[in-house]
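Lecture notes, continued. The same structure-token format from the folding unit now serves as the input rather than the output. Read the line below as a description of shape only.
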């Protein structure tokens, strides 16, 4: 998978979970992809101060990204 294809797939994953984040006043954006294995995202809005943001990252964001791009090893929130 090329880097452009990988980024497209990650954006598809983010678009899938974005409505759930938006419904709670939050959002998410892709910051970077490193070595085609490590993704950095930025939670925004209400998600930045939510006590469940760690759960959201693991159960929602990371799982969905790995569904679209199985080679991804880590997903990290950059504050």
């Amino acid at each position: 998978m090329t880097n452009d294809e990988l980024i497209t797939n990650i954006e598809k994953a983010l678009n899938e979970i974005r409505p759930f984040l938006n419904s709670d006043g939050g959002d998410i954006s892709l910051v970077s992809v490193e070595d085609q294995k490590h993704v950095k995202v930025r939670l925004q809005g209400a998600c930045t101060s939510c006590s469940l943001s760690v759960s959201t990252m693991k159960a929602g964001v990371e799982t969905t990204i790995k569904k679209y791009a199985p080679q991804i090893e880590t997903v990290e929130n950059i504050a």
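Point for the exam: The CA atoms of residues 15 and 37 lie 20 Å apart.
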